[in-house]
Amino acid sequence: MKKYLIHGGIGFVLSVLLACLRFSGWEPGAQSALRAASDGFTIVGFLYLATAALGKISSTGFFDIFSYGLREGVRFLIPGIKKIPPAFYDYRAEREEKRRQRDEGEGAGKRAALLTGLVLFVLGVLFTLLFYAVS
Length: 135
Fold this sequence. Notes:
The longest helix is centred in the first third of the chain and has 29 residues, at 30-58. The chain is 79% helix and 0% strand. By secondary structure, it is mostly helical. The chain contains five helices and no strands. Helix 1 (2-22) packs across helix 2 and helix 2 (30-58) packs antiparallel against helix 5.
């Protein structure tokens, strides 16, 4: 519950801050305020959703080949490195074991980021619908 409150609080503060920066204040009426709120909540919600999706994808080992290739490329380009990395299969098995140990208790944090992103994005869509209703 604590992670949900932290994610929700940070997301809400960022959304309001972005909406305040977007709101010029010189334009009277509700249209400008609704447009600013729509932008703030939609952008922050989308960023939360994208971050949660990237975290979920990276926990599956999808990016292991890129990190292994980068390691091999650096080892190939810099002549002073003598350490020979294991084969990709061994590297991936080693990373999987580290990932399993690291991700044992982090499921709630990823769900909190996903839920926060969904709520903020839905609020952004609602503000957008209100903006078009007032227009």
